[in-house]
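Human: We require from you a protein record containing the residue sequence and its fold in C-alpha cell form, and nothing else.

Assistant:
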Amino acid sequence: MSESTIRVALVDDQPLLRTGFGLILDAEDDLAVVGEASDGATAVQLVARERPDVVLMDVRMPVMDGIEATRRIVAEFPETRVIILTTFDLDEYAFNGLTAGASAFLLKDVDPEELVRAVRLVASGDAVVAPRVTQRLLEAYVRPGGAPAAAATAVVQMVPPEVARGLAELTPREREILGAMAAGRSNQEIATEFFVSEATVKTHVRRVLAKLQLRDRVQAVVFAYEYGIVTPGGEG
C-alpha cells in the first residue's frame, strides 16, 4: 500500500453491504479497505487502531448508532472523514450526521462510480458530494433564521463569541463565497458568478474554512444554515 492510497473503513450491520462496498473500493488502485465494523462502538475502536482516511458509516446500528460514532470520531480523530450512509436523501439521520461532523452522505444504493468518486472527494476535503442535495437536506430540517426543525438535532441559535470573531474576520468576498457554497454552487459555478478562476475560488474557500475553523465544505454549509448566514429558500 503506497502513501497515496486512500484508506477506507466500512461500518454497517449488514455484512452483504460491507462486502459489496469492499469489492468496489478494493478494485481501485488508489483505494484500500483497512477494516470493517458492525456497530458504532466497534467503529470508534477501528478508527483508533487503523486511522483510516475515510469511514463509510451506517446510522442505524446496535450498541452505538452511527451518529454518536461519527461525533466521537470527528472529536478524537479529526484527520478521519466520515461519509454517512442513508436510505433516503431527505433523511433526519443524514441531517444529524452532518451536524455531528460528517463530511458527506450517500444513499446506500449509490452507483459504484459515484461511491468511488465520493470517497476520493471527501478524502481530498475539496468538495461536497451532491451539493444541491445537501442544500435540500438542510432546507428540510432547518427553519428560516437558523432555528432547528422539531425533529432535528438542536443547533445553536445564539452566535458564540468565537464564531462571531471568525465571521468578523471574513472579507466581503469571502462572505459571498460562503453564501454561494451554502446555496449548493460548485467551484466552477462560483467562479462563473464572480468572474474569477476556479483556483481563486479554491483559495477563498480555504481561507473561509481556516477563519471559521471548519473541516471542509460541507461543514461550512451546515455552519451557514445553523447561524443564519443563509436561510432556506434564500442566501445571506
